[in-house]
Task: structure prediction
Amino acid sequence: MKYQSQKVAYWYFLAALALFCIQVIGGLLAGWIYVSPNFLSELLPFNVIRMIHTNALIVWLLLGFFGAAYFLIPEESEREIYSTKLAYIQLIILLIGTLGAVGSYLVGIHGGREFLEQPLWVKFGILVAALIFLLNISMTVLAGRKTAITGVLLMGLWLLSLLWVFAFINPDNLSLDKMYWWFVVHLWVEATWELVMAAILAFLLLKLTGVDREVVEKWLYVIVATALFSGILGTGHHFYWIGLPGYWQWVGSIFSTFEVIPFFLMMSFAFVMVWKGRKNHPNKAALLWSLGSSTVAFFGAGVWGFLHTLHGVNFYSHGTQITAAHGHLAFYGAYVALNLAIFSYAMPMLRERAPYNQVLNMASFWLMTGGMAFMTFVLTFAGTIQTHMQRVVGDYYMEVQESLSIFYMMRFGAGACVVTGALLFIYSLLVVRRDEIIAPGPANPVPGE
Amino acid sequence: MAEFLTKSRARNIFYGGSIFFVVVFVAMTVHSHKYVVETSTAGMELSEAVVHGKHIWEENSCINCHSLHGEGAYFAPEVGNVMTRWGVLEDPEDAFETLKGWIEAQPSGTEGRRQMPRYELTDEDIRGLAEFLRWADQTDTQGWPPTEAG
Result:
């Protein structure tokens, strides 16, 4: 850690990890209700648990991104953060908003659109926090060294904050509501978040592999260009069956096919950089998470997305467990794993000690990734059967669901693995205080950063 | 390749291309907006009851169990075509009675079956919800869903 103000990131990461904990436990509960439908049905209905599961995910990933920005921008800009005070105020606003939202869901106050169920005052809080963040980060970047990484990161964060405005716009016409809703949901995860992801990944690889900055930054531009070129019109793959014009079926099919490219490039980029890199960085866990993130993102977002994105296929598979399979692996690979990569990289520095107990951290990677992969396979099988029974044969929904119960049991098992992995990750990052278990590799040809 | 695609060229392609796609997307959005209002959802009036029903749908977070036009939680049946499935699409009164009967019979308490919570809704709320679902059912969704099962 070169700059004092980077310390701000530590609190963001802690808050993110706490919410991560809530998110996975919520997911496990929801998975159990699929197995035992009467569980908690009077006390805490499924819709509330699901809301907590998805909202906590979004907020902790954003907290992770904000923290990552506060960590890497001082190093990239070569100066302290414009105002650490603002950064803490922003965090407090976000925490109050998050607790307020969870509390209101628990007492039955919720509403609005899927994923955007937060009460209005929480939405305003998020907006204010985002503005504080943008001011703080932009002032820091403008005053310091400008790199491609900070440029792309800043652009991603500005655009995602701008798109948040659509969370406030809720037309009475359901079809319009759905169309503008995707402006937040799709254009976040399949466009602007990808800019943030690519920028953080580029930073990590720059630090971990010691490859020349020029090479990293050129790749970065190429990756984010393909992400936006495919992702913007790729929004069309959500516009097939919600009352929009038929041409979206072609536009959506073609451009979402291209959406595989940025993820393929990110994966290739990560492996080529590690292969070319001459540095033997001691933080193997951060490297594992970086490579794992780009690889799982390629399969989850790229391959599994492509599986059911062509309109002829989507006509049958839309809104089945195939979507759930894709959603889980894509979010895990692209955003969860990436956040855990930057946490693994930054935490030892923020706590001012050498990377420690990476064995546990790496074990948590394999537990979580294995669990997620198995969950994805299980749900894909369930979804395929569901698609056939419900969409081709025409059997009713609940009958179909009853014949899928074996898959839901396996999914619960996979979920339990993921939760165990997540708790292990948090433990390895925060609690373990012993010295390094594995000895660092041979002397580095290039000094470590 | 290395000399042709310099970093600054890659950057210019990124910014220039992105602006191009944003412009195209905005133009298509404007057209789609008009299409929704004038064509695909013009089958039934967007009445006060429909709007009220939409708010009831949102306040109770129905989307976090059900799906509507295929979007939602996939934990409970699709409701974008539920009025067709119940055979009450054409009759507001039948739609209201059927929905009221359904909501007031919940939770079923059947062991091993997913439970829909009991929502305390007024007749006006239920009527709005029924109208909202009838309205949604009449949207031109390009032929989706493929079967009545939703």
Observations:
- Chain A touches chain B through 70 residues (CB under 8 Å).
- Chain A has a mean pLDDT of 94.
- Residues 1-145 of chain A form one domain.
